[in-house]
Structure formats: structure tokens, C-alpha cells
């Protein structure tokens, strides 16, 4: 169990709901959800997440580029990339830019637990 605050960034509502349920069941607090890059940038100011689950493909942004913005705004936040695309070069770039873990969709509660454990959570 953790008291870490989590932000979920994904354009699909069902994915945000699914991930939110898994996280809440594990004792995490979901402090914000965002469906786009712009929404992420706005909400990042208002909340102070410890962990951010970040989709790579968003309607108005590239998650890899958004990762740079997140690190500038909230350098202490641990980012976990979460995407259906398994393009190795894009995932590697995200990890090189500071993302801590990558989870491929569709994900299981066990895979989310593994990602959180990799953060020391």
C-alpha cells in the first residue's frame, strides 16, 4: 500500500477508469486525470503528483514531448509510460528522457504492480 499521489494521462476514458480502479485498489490516490496534452499541462500546475502514468499517443500531443514538459514542471514526479504502441525506438527515447518504466496496453493489474514496484512503491 502506498499513499503516493497519481496522475493518469490517457485519451481513452475506459483506460483512465481501468487504471484508476487498479491504483485505488492498491491504496494510491488519483489526484488528477487528463485526456490531452493541454489538459495535462493545466492540471499539472494544480496537483502535485508523485507518479504520472503517461500515454504516448494523445490527440493533441506526443507523450514523449510532454515528458520533457512534465520533468521541467515536476522534476520529482516519476513517470511511467503506458501505451498500446510497442515501437522500441519511441519507448527507448522515453526511457532515455527519464521515464522510469514502460507498460504496454492492454495491461494487467500485475503489470501495473510491477511498474510501481520498479519505482520502489
From TrEMBL:
Name all Response regulatory domain ranges: 5-120
Keywords, in A-Z order: Phosphoprotein, Two-component regulatory system
Give all 4-aspartylphosphate modified positions. Answer: 55
- Does the UniProt entry include the keyword Cell membrane? no
Which Gene3D superfamilies does this chain map to?
3.40.50.2300
Q: Which InterPro entries match?
A: Bact_response_regulator, CheY-like_superfamily, Sig_transdc_resp-reg_receiver
Q: What is this protein called?
A: Response regulator
Q: What is a biological process (GO) this protein takes part in?
A: phosphorelay signal transduction system
Q: Which organism is it from?
A: Oryzomonas rubra
Amino acid at each position: 500500500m502506498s499513499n503516493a499521489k497519481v496522475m493518469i494521462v490517457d485519451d481513452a476514458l475506459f483506460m483512465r477508469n481501468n487504471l484508476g480502479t487498479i491504483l485505488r485498489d492498491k491504496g494510491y490516490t488519483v489526484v488528477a486525470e487528463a485526456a490531452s496534452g493541454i489538459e495535462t499541462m493545466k492540471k499539472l500546475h494544480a496537483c502535485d503528483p508523485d507518479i504520472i502514468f503517461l500515454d504516448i499517443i494523445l490527440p493533441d500531443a506526443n507523450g514523449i514531448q510532454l515528458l520533457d514538459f512534465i520533468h521541467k514542471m515536476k522534476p520529482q514526479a516519476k513517470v511511467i509510460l503506458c501505451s498500446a504502441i510497442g515501437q522500441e525506438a519511441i519507448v527507448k527515447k522515453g526511457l532515455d528522457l527519464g521515464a522510469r518504466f514502460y507498460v504496454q496496453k492492454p495491461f494487467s493489474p500485475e503489470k501495473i504492480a510491477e511498474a510501481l514496484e520498479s519505482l520502489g512503491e
